[in-house]
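Action item from last week, closing it out:
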Amino acid sequence: MRNKYLSFTDNRETTPFESAEEAWFWYCLCEELGFERAKGHSGQTARPCETSDIILAVKHLLHDGLLGPEHIRILQKYGFEQAPPHVNFGATQKICALWKEAMTFLDSILKRKGIVRCFFLF
C-alpha cells in the first residue's frame, strides 16, 4: 500500500512561531484549506512542526483537564475566523478570558517542543 502522504526533504532553516496564537491560526488555516497532516515546510516560512503537533498539544491539555469543552468551542470558533476574540468586536469578557487561558496553556507546551519561540531575559 502506498503512503498517501508525500515525503520530501526541505533543507531550509525552520522558524518557530512567535506565539501559540500564531501557531493555532496556522493550524486552523491548514484545516480549513483541507491540508491533511500539513508539514511546516510549505509556504515561504518553514515551520518546526506539522499540524498534527498543534492539535495533539490541544488534545493533551483537554485530556489533562486543563482545557474544557468551552475552551475548545472558543478555540474552534475564533481559530477559523483567524482573529482572537475581542470585547470591542462582540466577544464577552468570559470568552476573552477563556481564550487567553487556553493560549497560555498551549503556549507552554509549544515552547517546550520548540514550536513557539522562547525568549529568555538574562
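Closing note: Confidence is low (pLDDT under 50) at residues 1-8.
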